[in-house]
Amino acid sequence: MLIVRFAINQVPFVLSDRLGELKDQNAKVSIIQYYEYIFNRIIVEFKPKNDEGGTLPTYSIELSRKSTYDQVAAKLAEKLGVDPLHIQFTTTSSPSGLPKNTLKRSANLPLQEMLVPGHVHLGNQYNVLFYEKLDMSIVELESKRLVKVTWIGPTLKDEVL
User: Is the pLDDT score of 123 beyond 50?
Assistant: First the structure.
C-alpha cells in the first residue's frame, strides 16, 4: 500500500490506494493532478437510443468531465467493438429521461457540455447519454444535406415525399 503524506496550509493530508493505482498505470501523478482527477470524474450511463427488442447493452463508464466528444466515443467504442466515428450521441430530456437532441460531433465539445445542463451532479455522479451505432461515419452523415422534394402530380395537388 502506498501512503503519501503532505500538508497544505499546515493541514495534513494522507493519500493511499488510489494514487498507487494511478502510478501503476504509468500516469504522472502529482497531488494537484490527483485531486483534479477526483473532482472531474463522472460516471456516465450509455443507453441505446433505438432498442425496441431490449437486446442492446447499457454501459456505465467512468470518465472525466473534461473528456472531448472523440474521447467519449473512443471509450464507448471499446465496449461496443465498433469504430468511434460510427457512434452518435443524443442528450436526455430531464423530466422524462427520453432521448432529446442529437449532438453534433465537435473536437472541442467536453462531456460536461454534452450532458444536460443542471443534470451534472458533483460527488456520486450518475448521468445518461443515448448512443446510436451508425452504418456510416458521423463525419459523412453530418456533411449530408436534407432535401425536401415537393411532387406536383397530374391533379396539381401538393404531395410531400
Answer: no
Catalogue all structural domains in the chain, each as residue range(s) with its CATH number.
41-143 (3.10.20.90)
pLDDT at 74: 92
**121: how many CB neighbours lie within 10 A of its CB?**
10
Whether pTM exceeds 0.90: no
Q: In this predicted structure, what is the pLDDT of residue 2?
A: 45
> What is d(CA 63, CA 32) in angstroms, rounded to the nearest whole number?
18
What are the grid coordinates assigned to 8, written together? Answer: 497544505
